Amino acid sequence: MLAFIAVLTACNGTGQKQKTCCANDNQVSKSSSFSSIDSLLHQAVQMRDKEVELTAVVSHTCKHAGKRCFLIDATGNETIRIEAGGAINGFNRELTGKTIRVKGILKERRLTEEYINQWAEALQEKKVKEDGSAETCAAENNNITQMREWMKSNGKDYYSIYYIDGQDYDLVQ
């Protein structure tokens, strides 16, 4: 679950550029280009449901259908999920460790306080029923604690998880 968590952190906003792409003579779309996950997440509220372009390293691709991949920043602290869509049929495993530039729509999934509380209760039941699950439970409990702390410090009754509904990508290296 930690890979799905995107904690908003401060950033100086460097690396953002406006890019104009012409699909045809009648249609002009603008996407904001980001050189780091941190800079994107710093502006996530303003960029929600807008086209973004992000360049980062692929840390993982889902092995079954390849419909998701995860990008990680240079520090290893920030990740963001990319969902296959548009011209992207899937992400192959050979992308792991490579840098890609992905274009898509930034989306937000809100985990409500009620949902997080139900998750915590289910986790406690799992802890009682399963043997050897202490490491998983500890990581999940840590995620829940971080989400609750973020909600409290930001005065929110939900926790935001941002992801990109991918439309196209290019291999950078």
Protein model, in words:
The structure is a single chain. The protein has 173 residues and is of the alpha+beta class. It has a single domain, classed as Beta Barrel (OB fold (Dihydrolipoamide Acetyltransferase, E2P)). The protein is built from four helices and seven strands. A five-stranded mixed barrel has the order 3-4-5-7-6. A hairpin with a 2-residue loop joins β1 and β2 (27-34). α3 runs antiparallel to α4. The longest helix has 21 residues, at 134-154. The chain is globular and about 45 Å long. It starts with 16 loop residues before the first strand and ends with a strand.
In short:
The protein is an alpha+beta fold and 173 residues long. It is 28% helix and 38% strand.
List keywords for this structure.
single chain; 173 residues; alpha+beta; OB fold (Dihydrolipoamide Acetyltransferase, E2P); 5-stranded mixed barrel; 4 helices; 28% helix; globular
